[in-house]
Amino acid sequence: MNPASNPALRESHLFDRRTIAEIQRAAAEGIYDIRGFGAKRHVPHFDDLLFLGASVSRYPLEGYRERCGTEVTLGARHARQPIELKIPITIAGMSFGALSGPAKEALGRAASEVGTSTTTGDGGMTPEERGHSKHLVYQLLPSRYGMNPDDLRRADAIEVVVGQGAKPGGGGMLLGHKISDRVARMRDLPMGIDQRSACRHPDWTGPDDLEIKIQELREITDWQVPIYVKVGATRTYYDVQLAVKAGADVVVVDGMQGGTAATQDVFIEHVGIPTLPAIPLAVQALKELGMHRKVQLIVSGGIRSGADVAKAMALGADAVSIGVAALIALGDNAPEHDEGYRAIGSAAGYYDDYQAGRDPSGISTQDPELAARFDPVKGGRRLANYLRVLTLEAQTLARACGKSHLHNLEPEDLVALTIEAAAMARVPLAGTNWIPGQGSF
Amino acid sequence: MSTTTEIEVVDLSLTPLRELNQRLHDLAGADGPRSWRITNPSGAHNIACGLDADIDVVVEGHAGYYCAGMNKQARVRITGTAGQGVAENMMSGRVTVDGNASQAAGATAHGGLLHVRGDASSRCGISLKGAAIVVEGSIGHMSAFMAQTGTIVVCGDAGDALGDSMYEAHIYVRGAVAGLGADCIEKELRDVHRAELGGLLAEAGVAGVDVADFKRYGSARNLYTFKIDNTY
Ligand SMILES: Cc1cc2nc3c(=O)[nH]c(=O)nc-3n(C[C@H](O)[C@H](O)[C@H](O)COP(=O)(O)O)c2cc1C
User: Fold this and answer.
1) 3-state secondary structure string, chain A?
2) B188 is a domain residue
3) In chain A, which residue's Cα lies nearest the Cα of B44?
4) Which residues contact A276 (CB under 8 A, 6 or more apart)?
5) Which residues of A touch B64 (CB under 8 A)?
6) In which domain, by residue range, is B81 found?
7) CATH number at residue B182
8) pLDDT per position as a tens digit, A374-421
9) Which of the residues A101, A115, A150, B105 has an alpha carbon 20 to 30 A from that of A280?
């Protein structure tokens, strides 16, 4: 349907209306588009995989009655106190600064309620999130904003962030209008300026240095807590092997469609590989080192449902992590805020301007009035509900495949709907035994 | 708290690093020796990192990476050279290197004083967040990159791209600067700066240098907001 209702008008595939609008915007403003959320383009994803339920040759488990375990231990490789989670779905690192204090609190409340972990972000640890999070992972980022040894020793795990799926090779940014007094103080920066976070760590440059850096973190924390290494998915096979060699207890691999608070659109859409091919690459790297299931693999980037969780785990992940989906569960993009979104040129279901700080839902803002709209108790309850649903859905699928624990799901339980997904996920195209790129046929 | 005057000597050729660091960490808010000598460091990494006690530690020899990393309160002195990231992310206290320091000395440090008697290599004071760094010799390229707050005093020369993308840190250099990084400019040395500079030199115990010989560098603040013409 075109606005002129003239069936003879033809929209270009290459120059569709959105592309034309973006060219016009760039021509008018002279600066690239910066936004939040994850990639919006289509990429091969978990939707392109299906489970083979039990049949004559496989025996299913009874839904609701028979046990299907979901617990996971993270970081037992070196840490005296590994993280023990009830469900394998964790909350990804999202900075205080990008998110409001109450939103961070809600993430902690929900995670604690269902027995999983939450993660700090660029900008340091707030007392609110420490207080409300039973298991809190503390990020060591290139910027080192707010980094201090007391918080390091207060953390339940430490995550060395090398990169993020939305922007592998890129640093962070927090635009001036989101820099409240408190955010500026926590980051030791002036008020009101556009903050850029470094893309490289200041005091190490390669895998050999990283190994010593990780040792330093272990020494400072007396070898108590696990150390994760997070990478954006690009050269995943090599990155995972190097992270393991550097001593990581847990490797976090974030696919290119993973969310962000503020990144150039061109970066979000055009750098990195999707989550789907990243998992088999990571698993291969771990297996070749004899480290699969010893160093845990956490996968993120586009996890939305229990099916996504189950598929990631069947491909070999030990746990998954969610960012955008968690914000949506809190109330981001909710229809009740539609009017507010429209007032700032967006609409419920489309909102991605997390960088702008004008979020009518009160989640991605530092404006006290907007932030006050968000109720951390109610938001936390919604997210806890959502996390329970993800878990129940994943269990349902696992039982159908005859698995008494989510970790028992395996690639053999999966087939692919497209040749691309078959090649990337390394499972056969449905109805064939063909895995493109594997052996001969 | 007891203040034994005896010096606790730990020989790193005999004692595992883990044991040494644990003993030093156990002093946080607790009794124990206040004066430590670490012998035979032999370039070991992560010596005396994560301290949080009002103690004196002398590392007799060369230290590897991240010596005195994230230090709080303690006074740590390295009589030889220090590897990468000495006193990185220091919060308070004082770290002295009698010899030269490698890359990223005092990186991201929030507080306290890092005093290097020799030269410091590249990226000295990178992402500095409030600490003071006094280098009696010269510093390498890309020093004070994205330095946020705090002060860097260099009695010798500075390498290329000094203060690239820096924020509000203060940089004082007595000798030649090979080149300034993006958005870093020379600024007027006013009385308040002379006072700050003189104070730091005195605190570090550096004598015989005249504050009037220094030039001050800081941010032009052109990169503080995104602009179309930031074509560096
Ligand atoms: C609002 C927001 C803020 C984020 N901040 C950080 C951060 O500070 N550090 C980090 O490593 N990743 C950050 N991320 C990325 C997430 O940790 C995670 O990798 C990503 O959201 C996973 O993809 P998903 O959103 O599709 O679940 C952020 C993501 C969002 C949506």
Assistant:
1) CCCCCCCCCCCCCCCCHHHHHHHHHHHHHCCCCEEEECCCCCCCCHHHEEECCCCCCCCCCCCCCCCCECCEEECCCCCCCCEEECCCEEECECCECCECHHHHHHHHHHHHHHCCEEECCCCCCCHHHHHHCCEEEEEECCCCCCCCHHHHHHCCEEEEECCCCCCCCCCCEECHHHCCHHHHHHHCCCCCCCEECCCCCCCCCCHHHHHHHHHHHHHHCCCCCCEEEEEECCCHHHHHHHHHHCCCCEEEEECCCCCEEEEEHHHHHHCCCCHHHHHHHHHHHHHHCCCECCEEEEEECCCCCHHHHHHHHHCCCCEEEECHHHHHHHCCCCHHHHHHHHHCCCCCCCCCCHHHCCCCCCCCCCCHHHHCCCCHHHHHHHHHHHHHHHHHHHHHHHHHCCCCEHHHCCHHHEEECCHHHHHHHCCCECCCCCCCCCCCC
2) yes
3) A212
4) A43, A44, A45, A46, A48, A49, A255, A421, A424, A425
5) 212
6) 43-222
7) 2.160.20.60
8) 999 999 999 999 999 999 999 999 999 999 999 999 999 999 999 999
9) A115
Test the B interface: residue of A173, A210, A220, A263 with most B CBs within 10 Å: A220
Residue B6 inside a domain? The answer is no
Report the number of distinct structural domains present in chain B.
1
pLDDT digits (tens, 9 = 90+) for B145-182: 999 999 999 999 999 999 999 999 999 999 999 999 99
Which atom of ligand 1 lies nearest, measured to the CA of A257?
Answer: 26
**Among A30, A190, A212, whose Cβ lies nearest the Cβ of B168?**
A190
Do the domain assignments include residue B20? no
Q: Which domains does chain A have, with CATH numbers?
A: 37-425 (3.20.20.70)
pLDDT in the model for residue B228: 54
Is the CB of A354 inside a 6 Å radius of any atom of ligand 1? yes
Whether the predicted pLDDT of B232 surpasses 60: no
| Pairs of CB atoms within 8 A across A/B | 103
Average pLDDT, rounded, for chain A = 95
